[in-house]
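hey m, so remember when u said the tokens were messed up on ur end? i reran from scratch. heres the input so u can diff it against urs
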Amino acid sequence: METSSDQLEPQTDPPTPSLPLNGSAQHGPWAPPTNHDRSTNGHSDISNSSQKSLDPENLPGARKSLAGISLRAFILGNALGLSSLLCVILIYKDNALWRAPFFIATLSLFHFLEYWTTAAYNTRYATISAFLLSQNGSAYNIAHTAALFECITTSIFFPNRSWLPRTSRLPLLILGLLMIIIGQSTRTIAMAQAGSNFNHTVQMKKKEGHELVTSGIYGYLRHPSYFGFFWWGLGTQVVLGNVVCFIGYAAVLWRFFNSRIGREEELLVKFFGKEYVDYRRRTWVGIPFIR
């Protein structure tokens, strides 16, 4: 959302000389190689082998830069760990600001899983952009910044969310957590089950080996990764207690997925014809008012 076999050629043992040789007879009697000879030859072999096996795409600044990937993973891991710890401390102290580090932890986990799932199940596309940290445009970053700002402001001035009936606060919190868990799980499972058929960008042409995935979670949901992100995003705002951003997220996400799904399904009908038409008829999207 490989197997290979090696054939071994029969080999014959080379003739065994009566004495070990390290040069032609004209250079005099045999002598064992010195440590200098061993270290020089070994270093040369290792160096040449490393240069031959080095993938240019793994170099700093490249699409699959190991330095860039490890740095992003390090930052996300620390953000997840530290914000989770701060969230627990603030909950223990009964401080309403716990929602802010919770949001950061949720975001960190989401972006880490985007790359990890791609690397595990669609390795060819495991580039730096698979983290989705800067590929969603400025609107994505503005939305999350606004959500964090509303959460902090509300927690300072209205820590108990006084506009909500007291009896509904805990049920809403549980509902939000369930939406986040279901949304994140659905998206990650969808990416894993699609494997090499999953891509973060809409494909304008059908590539060789591209198959229509209709099993697993795709047997019920036509676009499970979109379903997952939609409900994950709304769930974060329910947990944060953000009224304004909940409305904003719902409107922006619905508009985005409505447009994207329509455009994508036009291409999928061209790619797979009646097979996709029949598949579309027996599945659903799971996002309100998008058929």
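this time it looks ok to me. The chain has a mean pLDDT of 86. if urs says something different then somethings off w ur setup not the seq
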